[in-house]
Design goal:
Beta Polymerase, domain 2, alpha+beta, six-stranded mixed β-sheet
Length: 164
């Protein structure tokens, strides 16, 4: 199951695509039984090779700046027709419109579920809230235990001093 951080990275990459006017942005949650390589595909297309390189650059810069994460590899940047960015937990595919139609990787991954960006954001907000609540509960328990220990020490009678 993908971590909160990998979902945050995925959302940041999708936002970078939107900011650079990528078209038809889709996230596919891959079936773990069929694909042990990655959890998600982020797929989009640009109208020309220069736009595709700009989308790639924006994703790379944003994930580096906000999370300190670099892609494991980037393929196809020079041609710009189909650029693949491997971030382990997800892979970004940036196509020219005609190349996307030709390769049709959405059809090749029939078992993959399309993930709605709004749903993913909502799920991430809930998971983050739960994750933040757990350390707070631990801190409260620790503070209560510490207070109880102090109270126990305060109630303990002092030992009489030994006579010499």
């Amino acid at each position: 199951m993908p971590s909160i951080e990998s979902n945050q990275l995925l959302l940041a990459a999708a936002a970078a695509c939107e900011d650079k006017k990528a078209e038809d942005i889709r996230i596919l949650a891959l079936d773990p039984a069929e694909s042990g390589l990655t959890d998600y595909f982020l797929i989009c297309n640009g109208t020309n090779d220069r736009q595709n390189v700009a989308i790639t650059d924006e994703i790379e810069i944003r994930l580096k700046r906000e999370f300190g994460v670099y892609p494991n590899s980037v393929e196809g940047r020079r041609q710009g027709e189909w650029i693949l960015m491997d971030y382990v937990d997800f892979v970004v595919h940036i196509f020219l419109t005609e190349k996307r139609a030709y390769y049709d990787i959405e059809r090749l991954r029939k078992s993959a579920q399309t993930v709605d960006l709004k749903e993913l954001k909502t799920m991430l907000v809930k998971k983050t809230a739960v994750a933040r609540a757990k350390p707070a509960k631990k801190a409260v328990k620790k503070a209560v235990a510490k207070k109880a220990a102090k109270a126990a020490v305060a109630r303990k009678p002092a030992r009489p001093k030994a006579k010499t």
